[in-house]
Amino acid sequence: MRVAIITNEGGAAISQPETTAAAKAAVSYANDNLGGIGGHRIDIVLTCPTREDVATARTCANKVVEAKADALVVTSTGLGATIAPIVTGAGIPYITANGATAPELTSPASFVWTGGFPSILRAWAKYAKDKGYRSFTAFVIDSPSAIGAAQQLGAPAFKAAGVDFTVATVPAGTPDATPIVSAALRRKPDAVAVIGESTVCISVIKALETVGNSADTLITQPCVERSVLDAVGSAIDGTQVATPYDVISKDDPEVRRYDAIMARYAPDTPTGGYAGIGYQGMMSFIRAAQGIRGDISPAAVTAAVKSAKNVPLPIGHGITFTCDGTALPPLISVCSSSNIFERFDGGKATNAQVVALR
Questions:
Q1: pTM, whole model, 2 decimals?
Q2: Which of 46, 57, 68, 299 is 20 to 30 A from 194, alpha carbon to alpha carbon?
């Protein structure tokens, strides 16, 4: 089976090579222990870094088509709106653990294993309503995909919950977000969220501590990678992280398998932070397509994934996924709407719990 990988390595502000290492570790494990996919060895025919640049992302997508890949696995990107139409337009399934743009989330040839950012926004809206909060402010990395998702998906979810929702943008690499945070907190929100990569997480979390934030604080998975934890120290205590994967529950068989695979096939890659999303994206594909029948082709891959039911989500704390278009309407590409919530205390995540929207 010919599989291409697109990753967001090499960008000036964002680079996540660990996602590629983790995805390739999953492939090596599957080839050595599972017979690949459906008895067919997985051949990685292309690995293309986008550098999170639109032109490079377009080039990578065209290379996938030229390579005649049977499937594309995207480890992580904010440029799905550029990549997905080219790849799916050529009949090649677009596969990722976490999508944020309309072409990724609404194409019948796209498979997004988790609800990702859209379902996290809905989960936070439900959380705010359940808590009786009146206002919620999200500090969002200044990227088109993140801001677009927050405004187009988050705003309606919070409006339906009866909670006022505002977005404060934070450019990647901002050394001190105190002015941005101070201005946003003048509205006295009951809860705040931090959505971005490591530099945004560090800057905003530090600023929240500096200004004496008293609002309930929620964060996303990138805010708990090791560089962030080392930089912010105890400032992260009391926050709640929403994530599509769990790598902290060491008694969970999925986490033990993940740790063992990474130790064997990518021993120099840290298992926290972003690595989990690359592993989850590829290993979910491997599981979902195991029932493939006949000659290998993009159409056969698509049919196999669409027919798979209640597939265990890798490092998903018991979550399963089914790609029949009903998990998170109207986002027909999303295969699961559940998320994992963890609380940080003493610099460590504890009490992982699955939050299902349906």
A1: 0.86
A2: 57
